[in-house]
Specification:
heterodimer, A: 168 residues, Cytochrome Bc1 Complex, Chain D, domain 2, B: mainly beta, four-stranded mixed sheet, 1 helix, 9 strands
């Protein structure tokens, strides 16, 4: 009796899962999934994906401090790299948010006005490896680890830097 | 006594052979030598063709400042400094087109400093 119940339950659960997968596939094949980027992500979607992003970054980033000393030279180098490679999407410190970056789905975080809350190690991981299904590329192919740490040092001190650094 | 000295000398020579640090390798006779020059914001040549399974040594020089050479598909990476030759040895084990790029920030235009390695069968 109990064995029959378990078999029935498993069959039912399997049928529901297969049915749900088939329905999802049908919705996708019919073109019913919106792919336009000119809308704000729904709150639930933003929260769920944000949760997944933060958890994944925390899991994969090595827990280590920035190996570079916080010198003016490193901060200026980080500012220069930020200005050339990042500011177009994430905003320039002295010029406000980027309309270009705000047009992505999801919108690129405006770091110039909202400095990142991630740790330096987490920021290093994000910059080096990028983020899937966003416009954030894996900069590890175009920037050395030293360059990435310089950008990270700059970002974490964005709200307390001297004008000589932010003017780069 | 004489035999002991000879034995010690032979042992010393053998150990010396094993422990001496290897000199920097230039391209050996079996390696294809490819010279690449880096400058803001390009590599010359920008496209390099090699054969799968053929050992390759890249000899990289810079005409202006320090650049990087990053060929991630083959785990190849080095800094390229002016006035010096940076050599990297590898053997391509897969065919196709693979991008290499400068990964030491070198100014406005750095993001366009890249090239292609073509590996033929």
């Amino acid at each position: 009796m109990r064995k029959q119940f378990i078999q029935g339950l498993l069959t039912g659960v399997t049928a529901v899962l297969v049915g749900a997968a088939a329905l999802a596939l049908l919705v996708m094949k019919l073109g019913a999934v919106p792919v336009n980027a000119d809308k704000q992500p729904p709150v639930l979607e933003a929260r769920l994906l944000g949760l997944a992003l933060h958890a994944s970054v925390a899991r994969h980033a090595e827990n280590r401090p920035n190996p570079l000393p916080t010198t003016e030279e490193n901060l200026v180098a980080g500012a220069e790299i930020y200005a050339q490679m990042c500011a177009k999407c994430h905003g320039q410190p002295n010029a406000g948010p980027s309309i270009y970056g705000a047009s992505f789905y999801p919108p690129a975080p405006q770091l110039a006005t909202h400095p990142p809350q991630y740790t330096e190690a987490e920021l290093f991981w994000i910059v080096k490896h990028g983020v899937r299904n966003t416009a954030m590329p894996a900069w590890g192919r175009q920037l050395s680890d030293e360059n990435i740490w310089q950008v990270v040092a700059f970002l974490k001190r964005l709200d307390s830097l001297q004008p000589v650094v932010t003017a780069e | 006594m004489k035999r002991t000295i000879i034995l010690l000398m032979a042992l010393t020579a053998a150990l010396g052979t094993v422990t001496l640090p290897a000199a920097p390798r230039a391209g050996s006779a079996t390696e294809k030598v490819i010279r690449i020059t880096a400058k803001k914001f390009e590599f010359a040549p920008g496209e390099v063709t090699v054969r799968k399974g053929e050992p390759v040594v890249l000899e990289l020089t810079s005409e202006d400042r320090t650049h990087g050479f990053n060929l991630p598909d083959f785990g190849v990476r080095t800094e390229v400094k002016p006035g010096a030759v940076s050599r990297v040895h590898f053997t391509p084990d897969k065919a196709g087109k693979f991008n290499f790029a400068c990964d030491v920030f070198c100014g406005s235009g750095h993001e366009d400093m890249s090239g292609t390695l073509v590996v033929t069968e």
